[in-house]
Amino acid sequence: MLTTIIYRSHLHDSVPIKTLEDMVAKANNKNQSSDVTGILLFDGRHFFQLLEGPRKTVQSIYDRICVDARHHNLVELMHDFAPTRRFGNLGMELFDLREHDKATVLQAVLDKGTSRYQLTYDDRALQFLRTFVIARDKENYFEIPAANTWEFIADEPASTLQDDIMASLQDCHFAFQPIIDPFARRVASYEALIRTPNGGSPSEYFSAFGGEAIYHADIQSKKLAFQLASALGIGDHSLSINLLPMSLVTVPNAVEFLLAEIEANGLVPEQVIVEVTENEIISKADEFAAEVSKLKAAGISLALDDFGAGFAGLSLLSKFQPDKIKIDREIISNVHKSGPKQAILHAIIKCCSSLEIAVIAEGVEQAEEWMWLEAAGVSQFQGYLFARPQLNGLPAIAWPEIK
Ligand code: C2E
Ligand code: MN
Ligand code: MN
């Protein structure tokens, strides 16, 4: 199958521009023997390459480019399939945009085309090419430093429970994971994640219950979450708890119960954030909205969890006006390498900024993901890069520092 991959990248500072011709000639030999064609543009700093050819070989050439140290901030813009090649000439010509005057440059690039697309823009691949040539989206290029610019240094030892409190835990436990603002060196909140007594996952914990018992267990468990948070010395920090939307709807007086337990453990509603997952909200939206208004009226904040993973997405922002959204790990992972993910995140961030909704990125595992997101305007993060959840304790946090 004829596959097209388009990427852009940044020539690494250590590569002398003079050596480019040679580098391209070598790459060309490989491309020719594997029937991969296309076009390579260079503007003095960035590359833009369109690769066309059989699926496997295009992918393997692209995989090699991804690990080539001469490319930096490499972003895949398009990965698609097509009936014919746009640039079918043998090999891959290097086209230096600096050698042409602005008025004719785009036509000069298109003249290298070999298909009927030559003079039309009615094609996504050629639209990308045009955007690159006229440098329309340069403000969206976040040229982040290499991951090894930073080291992550763990802070104070974790806070864990005294043995007598540990012994009193029976039915369920909680693991705590911080949400942090790394540059401000501030913990924004600790999220309480439910565990079985053996440290098993939330789904394992809830699988012991059937029918409506799940919702009662969900609400009841929060008594322990507040107790633990208080015993662990959460102090003025915020505490995020997870609830199924149906728990609030099904369990009689759920909000009253939560408020009473917050108070009984010396916490205040203003420091508590309730996280709900977007794709569970939809079924009884009106009843859920009524419970949310009670939470809000008492001072508790609302966060939409796993934002972008479900199908309700943007419409929920107008229905519930949450205080925060947590962007699902699926969109966060490898964002620094993916044009589509970057475009989605730009849109989410812009939308939330207009609505004054705080944005949290979850599941951040790589320094590059964190740096890209900081550059895009996100300042709160949760993920293994900074801290893993700790069972019945507040974990140490690995704060980033420039080496
Ligand atoms: P969630 O609220 O989105 O919580 C984040 C999950 O991602 C947690 O999994 C956490 O351990 C994991 N995680 C955090 N950082 C990373 C990372 O960098 N990489 C990866 N791969 N994973 C990361 P966990 O604890 O298994 O929780 C799964 C889900 O269970 C939670 O997702 C939440 O929706 C639900 N849950 C947890 N506690 C409760 C609860 O008390 N009540 C209800 N109803 N649901 C809960
Ligand atoms: Mn959550
Ligand atoms: Mn989540």
Automatic annotation (TrEMBL):
Every BLUF domain range: 2-93
Listed name of the protein: Diguanylate phosphodiesterase
GO molecular function terms listed in the Swiss-Prot or TrEMBL record: blue light photoreceptor activity; cyclic-guanylate-specific phosphodiesterase activity; FAD binding
Family matches, as InterPro entries: Acylphosphatase-like_dom_sf, BLUF_domain, Cyclic-di-GMP_PDE-like, EAL_dom, EAL_sf
Organism (species): Pantoea rwandensis
Any Pfam family the entry gives: EAL
Domain EAL, first and last residues per copy: 154-403
